[in-house]
Amino acid sequence: NAIALQATEQHQSAKRIAELDAKLSEEQLLRRQAEGDLTRSRADFARYKEEADAELSQLRSQVTKPMVEIAAQAKEEGRKCAQVAISALMDQLEEKDSLKAELEFCLKDAEARCAHLQAKLYQVTRKAAED
User: What percent of the chain has pLDDT over 70?
Assistant: First the structure.
């Protein structure tokens, strides 16, 4: 009877060991699958990050190039505007210089006429005084 009881206990222990081994094997299999999934996920993440970095770099260059072109165009437009303004100021200065020269000529001409008229007035006044 004790032998039968011991055999039953050994059988149950062996059955329990087999169940635990199966469960352990299943957990190890799940762990390996999870590790494989994690490795693939890390690889996918690294690939996606690399692709995103490349796309970001490309987008930056697409934005930077037009910004540089716009800055260059703005600089050129500013230079052109400055040239136009300087040219207009130079034209005004030349016009003022021309007007100044004309006014100086008119002033000298008026002074000469005035001197001539004063001389005539002096002659007329002197002649009138003599008469």
Answer: 100
